[in-house]
């Protein structure tokens, strides 16, 4: 798994690529997100459109990111899951916990609405 990021005002935009299977990459991402981000970053958009497969380690990564941002009174959203990943989210009932969007623009609008509501 590889990841790239972009920061805007109060939102972290993460793009993940490859399979979410290994603990080392996920630990590196979590370490970075929890130690390097400014406290003003309350929202996270995770684009997983380039993730073909995810196992329980990948699910754990998403859950831990969600927990990290919700603990800060923020939110994390998931964008573009493949059919296989979408099926995994439904089977594990995590689709009821995550806000899942097909397109990044939809997710950005949702997060902007939350940001306005929080002010």
Helices, strands, pairings?
Blueprint (H helix, E strand, L loop, with lengths): L1 E7 L2 E7 L5 H14 L6 E8 L5 H16 L3 E5 L3 H9 L7 E3 L2 H15 L1
Parallel strand pairs: 2-3, 3-4, 4-5
Antiparallel strand pairs: 1-2
Helix pairs in contact: 1-2
- Say what the CATH topology is: Transcription Regulator spoIIAA
- What's the main sheet like? 5 strands, mixed
Specify the CATH architecture: 2-Layer Sandwich
Assembly type of the chains comes to single chain
Class from secondary-structure proportions: alpha/beta
- How many independent structural domains? 1
Poorly predicted sequence stretches spanning 5 or more consecutive residues: none
Report the count of strand segments.
5
- What is the rounded Rg? 13 Å
Arithmetic mean of pLDDT: 90
The helical percent reads 40-55%
What fraction of residues sit in β-strands? 25-35%
Distance between the termini: 36 Å
Largest sheet, spatial ordering of strands: 1-2-3-4-5
In words, what does this structure look like?
With 119 residues, the protein is of the alpha/beta class. The chain has a single domain (2-118), classed as Transcription Regulator spoIIAA, CATH 3.30.750. It has helices at residues 23-36, 56-71, 83-91, 104-118; strands at 2-8, 11-17, 43-50, 75-79, 99-101. The protein has a five-stranded mixed β-sheet with strand order 1-2-3-4-5. Strand 1 (2-8) and strand 2 (11-17) form a beta hairpin. It is globular. The termini are far apart.
């Amino acid at each position: 798994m590889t990841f790239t990021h972009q920061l805007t005002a109060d939102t972290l935009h993460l793009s993940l690529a490859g399979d979410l299977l290994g603990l080392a990459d996920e630990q590196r991402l979590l370490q970075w997100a929890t130690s390097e981000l400014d406290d003003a970053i309350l929202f996270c958009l995770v684009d997983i459109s380039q993730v073909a497969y995810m196992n329980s380690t990948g699910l754990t990564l998403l859950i831990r990111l969600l927990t990290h941002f919700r603990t800060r009174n923020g939110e994390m959203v998931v964008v573009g899951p493949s059919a296989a990943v979408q099926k995994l989210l439904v089977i594990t009932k995590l689709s009821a916990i995550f806000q899942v969007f097909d397109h990044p623009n939809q997710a950005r609008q949702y997060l902007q609405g939350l940001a306005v509501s929080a002010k």
